[in-house]
Design goal:
Largest sheet: 6 strands, mixed
CATH class: Alpha Beta
Number of domains: 1
Mean pLDDT: 98
Low-confidence stretches: none
Order of helices and strands: EEEHEHHEEEEEEEEHEHHEHHH
Strand content: 25-35%
Number of strands: 14
Helix content: 25-40%
CATH topology: Metallo-beta-lactamase, Chain A
């Protein structure tokens, strides 16, 4: 399996998941042109689009690519009336396949109610495509879901093996890590992650592909019990995790 990030729009990522057979799934066809170019460049044969949610900046290429390449378009069952060109509705536990690559679907509402992640475990490597639910060092805004739903979705993702690599929908890592450093200035893992992200971006490379173990150490939304973080935001030690998450999300929404 090869995972190929494809830059789209201003800061979006689509992905090609390329099997050993050369068949490929497109995760989040944000726009048709860059995805089509990547398919030709990689010598892949697209078979499906796996959409993580219905927002236009993740599905803008669905109809054009599906029509042109006769692709199956996968999305969550609750998005059948909102996701362009959807032809297969899935929910937690369902599997989608391209070549030898099998992805397990996980419903992860919060950013949207129909958000779905795609978890791949080949036996040699693991990956989770999270759309705008879990970012590298961050999480998505609560456009449709509640703090409790998002916290539960992130907790569900943390049940996956720690070496699972995270492929998210946007290049937000540097700004997310600035926020993380503001909340936990003594967290050396955050400083290390900031240096690595700056180096990658300086080389014109994406920052995606961190592991869930790394995210546990640097991502504020996965660290709701961290004492320094709580102290920075004035969250009392006895405050429950969902309320703490809500306070962190509110602080990030206004952070500049």
């Amino acid at each position: 399996m090869r995972i190929v990030p494809v830059s789209c729009l201003t800061d979006n990522y689509a992905y090609l998941v390329v099997a050993e057979t050369g068949e490929a799934a497109i995760v989040d066809a944000s726009e048709a042109g860059p995805v089509r170019e990547a398919i030709h460049r990689e010598g892949a044969r697209a078979r499906a689009i796996w959409s993580t949610h219905h927002h236009w900046d993740h599905v803008g290429g669905n109809e054009e690519l599906a029509r042109e390449m006769a692709l199956e378009v996968v999305g969550h069952a609750s998005d059948v009336r909102r996701l362009p060109a959807i032809s297969r509705a899935v929910d937690t536990g369902d599997a989608v396949r391209v070549g030898e690559v099998v992805a397990t679907c996980i419903h992860i509402p919060g950013h949207t109610l129909g958000a779905v992640g795609y978890f791949v475990d080949t036996g040699r490597e693991r990956a989770i495509f999270t759309g705008d639910t879990l970012f590298c060092a961050g999480c998505g805004r609560l456009f449709e879901g509640t703090a409790a739903e998002m916290h539960a979705s992130l907790s569900r993702l943390l049940e996956l093996p720690g070496d699972t690599r995270v492929y998210c929908g946007h290049e937000y890592t540097e700004s997310n890590l600035r926020f993380a450093a503001h909340l936990e200035p003594s967290n050396t893992d955050v400083e290390h992650a900031r240096r690595r992200a700056a180096k990658l971006r300086g080389e014109g490379k994406p920052t995606v592909g961190t592991t869930l173990d790394e995210e546990r150490r640097v991502n504020p939304f996965l660290r709701v019990r961290a004492p320094e973080l709580r102290a920075t935001l004035g969250i009392a030690p006895g405050v429950d995790d969902v309320s703490a998450f809500s306070a962190i999300r509110g602080a990030k929404d206004s952070f500049r």
